Amino acid sequence: MSKLAFLFLIPVIISITGLIPQSARWLPKFSAILMIFQLPLVFGICSPVFSGVEVGSGDFVMDGIGAAFTIITTIIAAAALIQGSMTLPAERLADEHKMSDRHFCLFYTLAGLFICTMYAVPLTKHLGYMWILIEGTTLLSAPLIDYHRSKSSLEATWKYLILCSVGIAFALFGTLLIFASQHNTGAANSLVISQMLENAKNMDPRLLRLGFVFCLLGYGTKSGIFPLHNWLPDAHSEAPSAVSALLSGALLNCALVAVWRLSQLVTAAGQGEIVRQLLIPAGGITVIAASLMLISQHDLKRMLAYSSVEHTGLLTIAIGIGSGQLFMLHAFNHSIVKAALFLMAGNLLYTNGTKTINKLSGLLKSKPVWGILLAAAAFAIAGSPPFGTFISEWLLLKNIFSAGETFAALCVLIGLTITFIAISTHTGRVIFGKAQEPKRSAPVLKWAFVPMILIIVSFIAGISVNPSVMNLLTYLAKR
Amino acid sequence: MKNIFPLIFTVVNLLIIPLLLTGVIRKVKALMQNRIGAPVLQPFYDVAKFLSKSETISKNTSWVFTAAPIIGLSVAFLAGALFPWSGSFLPGKFAAASNIFLLIYLLALGKFFSMLAAMDTGSAFGGLGASREATISMMVEPIVITGLGALCLNAGTPNLQSAFAGNINPIIAGLTGTALIIASLAELSRIPVDDPTTHLELTMVHEAMILENSGRNLALIEYTTAIRSCIFYGLTTQVFFHMLPFTHSMNPILQYAAGIAGVLLFGCAVAFAEGILVKLKWRNVPNFLTFGTVLSLLAALIAVTQR
Amino acid sequence: MNLSQIDFLAAAAAATAVMMCGITGIQTQFRFLALQTALFSGICLLEGFSSHGQHMAQFIILAAVVLIVKAAGIPLFLMWAANKMSIIRDKGNTASPPVTLIMAFGAIAAGYFLIPQFAVYSAGNPVSAGMAVALLFIGMIFMVTRRLAISQVTGFLIIENGIFLYGLTQAKGMPHLVEMAVVFEALIAVLIAGLVILRINRNFEHIDVTQMRGLRH
User: Fold this and answer.
1) Total domain count, chain B
2) Per the CB < 8 Å rule, is C22 touching B287?
3) Are C193 and A161 within 8 A, CB to CB?
4) At what angle do helices B124-155 and B285-306 cross, to 10 degrees?
5) Do chains B and A meet with 3 or more Cβ pairs nearer than 8 Å?
6) How far apart are CA A192 and CA A126, in angstroms?
7) Partner C contacted by B286 (CB < 8 A)
8) Angle at which helices A324-352 and A64-94 cross, to 10°
9) A114 to chain C, minimum CA–CA distance in Å?
């Protein structure tokens, strides 16, 4: 049996435990402890990849990109579930329509399976399985969004389910077109990427290009590329914060990994032109559009969601210029910081009972620790030094310029500037000002622990990026 | 000799079959409603009775009111004579003139005059009926023209006589035929678009339009309506016949008989449908008719692509 | 150009999809959906026959799965859900049914003219490729112009059918495992969507998506 199977061990244990309704009392803590063990386990499994050995066989192989995204998913999942073990039961008790024990445990079952599918997406080398797994993430995460059982969360769930299902259906059509484009290669048609790469030169460019367009439409919906991002702010703002962190930090990456794999294939087939022509403008426009929408947000979690749209745009450009190392680096930095921010926002939502920015003011006076953390995280997401996002955004901008994509570079520059102003203004209103009377009390230090770790990780990532790290990443991306 | 038989057939056909069809429809409908109903020949007696009665004409009317029924009947008769009642069976010079556009717009001309006459009386119902009738015609015409156009495009000629003489693509014939059923239900004021038996002013369309007519005028109008039904049902029947590959190689007399039998059977089917369907709300009529339009358009698409 | 049997069934399926756009009765819509999907099951069998017995058994199994799961199971489930919520008709939202019908016809025409872009000529049956694209468009039109959440599921299923048609007729040799997985994925998606709709109906007391605008900022 492949070593990769051990990746799924702990999420599956969580899922199975969730089937026992009696476990509602101890399941959150149990899963948090398990996820702490998952971290060294995953690093152990991934370590051979860093020395150039691929793990696994058949349709599931861990290469450089796979390892990077497995690690990101693990960190985010661990952070979400550890923080969730504190916040989820509290949120449940505070909810108007209290969730039953059975549903609460089922939530963990689905969360475990959701994490499993997110692990499997970057590992698979089979376009068919990749599609099935990404559709699986949609179906498994839709019920997670409806945790609070309110009207608005139901509406967000519906929007997410229907938009992403239709989007993913287009991706299936694209996959079929790419499959059909091998009709005159001489070899048998295949969906396994390695076999397709061998025959890439002989693929029918007409169907391949169409297939890529449809796949981009589909996976782009899932990752929130403008103007297909409609579901994203709703789902992220209505989900419980642990789930928001998972969605933003791990799920968006999954769809982008699919785009990355396809863009590699299409480039190998000699159609790299269309990858650039589609992805770079799409990314640039996404960045600009998201930054403009960021200005007019009144809701903390929606603001964070639009910031995710913006970073999706940046990652799309990274894929478009074919820079796997920056794709990995920026995905890592963004995921870590965004998860920290969502978890912080969840804490605030719980204590103040609202997400509206105007009603959250004075955090620095009421809870100084949270205030400082939120300020640090906001600076990090807006891309200021010394955090990791600064380094990756700066490198990305440099590479866009050197790739000769002036339009995209200008979009990114303007977008990042607007974003910085918008995020710092909105977050400033939360941090400073008159202190609000909290509705509910929460253990301040305990709930701040996980976001703090994440921000420290981002800080370390920011100061430790040097040429040798970049060389390692480049080496991983090429594999 | 060769030309005289078709001529006789056509004239006899136009004299007998339309009113017989009306009678058959009424009889079947009565049977559907568990009534014995009037005898099948009752429409003949009705027409004879109306012809012998004196008529009441409003003082406010002009010559249009008295001329319209005569124009309507003569135009309908001409159209009936041009129509190929069987595959290749039309008297002499009529065959060359059996053009779909001529046929359809002759019928439209008659309709135009009956609408004028309805408005000429100045009564509220006449105007209402005429406006409704015009609305329906406006939606029916694209169905008929597109459907028959597709048929003729497939046959390569606008002449119905030649189109029906050859083999027609069964898919096009099926689509056009179905569209024509929908069109004929609306055009001939039958359920589910209009109820020919109702005398509730709010719902009637055709009956509202001819409310002011009496005596000789009414007889002519009834007869015109019967001929028009006969032509539309005949058209639909012919189109459906040509879905079957063997029909155009049949004996002409047999073809003719099959055509007439088809019209009468079609009448029975319409009566049967009227027994089980209800009238649509006026607002939903466009929706119903658009199905016909789309079917004809599909037929046209296939015809265009198969050229 | 003569239509092959497969092309004819594909065109018939596209025509049923067009008719669905004009139908307002929910139950009738589901019947048409079932009919449409049953046609795909027929295409599946014909494909099996034309493969000269090589993969006959696989195609028969696939046809049976499609017939049972997609043509019978899903419409029955949707009918049950609609009955439970006592929904009778969906009158449409942005465009009235006649307009939608004409748009759907436009989709078929567009599909036909897109054949050169999408068809795999070596696989035969090029018209099926155009009809698959047309089904995609019609599904989108259906989803956009309808008012009720349950109709959006119907539109999604039309899109799925179009993709399935393309996979069946153009992408020859597609692993049957993947196709089966796609069928079951659709089933699960519909089940989840159905349950969410039932919850929406309970919480909002309607399933009109145009009335659900709590989240627009």
Assistant:
1) 1
2) yes
3) yes
4) 20
5) no
6) 4
7) yes
8) 10
9) 15
Smallest Cα–Cα separation from B163: which of B92, B100, B245, B103? B100
Those chains having 3 or more beta-carbon pairs within 8 angstroms of chain B are C
Phi, psi of B165 (to 5 degrees): -80, -25
The 3-state DSSP class for residue A268 equals helix
DSSP string, B243-297: TSTTGGGS-HHHHHHHHHHHHHHHHHHHHHHHHH--PPPGGGHHHHHHHHHHHHH
Q: Which of residues 91-110 of C touch B (CB under 8 A)?
A: 96-98, 101-102, 104-105, 108-109
Spacing of C-alpha A205 from chain mean position: 31
Name the CA dihedral angle for B90, B94, B100, B106, rounded to a multiple of 10 degrees. -120
Chain B environment of C16 (Cβ under 8 Å): none
Cβ-Cβ pairs closer than 8 A, A with C, add up to 119
Which residues are paired to B149 by β-bridges? Answer: none
What is residue B202's DSSP assignment? T
Q: Give residue-wise pLDDT tens across range B128-179.
A: 889 989 999 999 999 999 999 999 998 888 888 888 877 788 889 999 999 9
* Burial class, B129, CB count within 10 angstroms (exposed 0-12 / middle 13-18 / buried 19+): buried
DSSP A267: I
Name which of A139, A184, A207 is nearest C188 (Cβ-Cβ). Answer: A139
Name the minimum distance, in Å, from the CA of C29 to any CA of chain B.
Answer: 14
Backbone dihedral angles phi then psi of residue B14, each to the nearest 5 degrees: -70, -20
> What string of pLDDT tens digits covers the 307 residues of chain B?
456 777 777 788 888 899 999 999 999 999 988 999 889 999 999 999 999 998 888 888 889 998 999 999 999 998 988 887 765 566 667 777 888 889 889 999 999 999 999 988 888 888 888 998 999 999 999 999 999 999 999 888 888 888 887 778 888 999 999 999 999 999 888 888 888 777 776 677 888 888 888 888 999 999 999 999 999 999 998 888 888 777 667 777 788 888 888 899 999 999 998 888 888 888 888 889 999 999 999 999 988 887 7
B8's CB contacts (< 8 A; 6+ apart) are none
* Helix locations, A271-405, DSSP H: 272-295, 300-320, 324-352, 363-366, 368-382, 388-402
**Closest residue on chain C to B301 (Cα):** C109
- Inspect the interface and report whether the beta carbons of C175 and A191 lie closer than 8 Å: yes
Range of the domain at B81: 4-306
Answer yes or no: are the C-beta atoms of A260 and A324 closer than 8 Å. yes
Q: Which residues of A touch C174 (CB under 8 A)?
A: 128, 176, 179, 189, 191
What is the complex's ipTM, to 2 decimals? 0.92
Distance in Å from the first CA to the final CA of chain B: 39
Query: Nearest chain B Cα to C19, which residue?
Result: B291
Residue A466 CB: number of other CB atoms within 10 A? 9
Q: Which of C138, C85, C132 is nearest to C107 (CA)?
A: C138
The shortest C-alpha distance from C97 to chain B (Å) reads 6
Indicate the residue of B171, B294, B301 with minimum beta-carbon distance to C112: B301
The pair of structure tokens assigned to A365 is 């006076």
Give the distance between the most distant pair of CA atoms in chain A. 72
The length of chain B, given as a count of residues: 307
- Among the partner-chain residues A136, A154, A180, the one whose CB lies closest to the CB of C171 is A180
**Given C24, C96, C105, which is nearest B297 (Cβ)?**
C105
- Mutual angle of helices A9-18 and A27-50, in 10-degree steps: 160
User: What b/e string do you get for A240-254 counting C-beta neighbours within 10 Å, with b at 16 or more?
Assistant: bbbbbbbbbbbbbbb
What is the C-alpha to C-alpha distance for residues A352 and A435, in angstroms, rounded to an integer? 11
* A207/C159 CB distance under 8 A: no
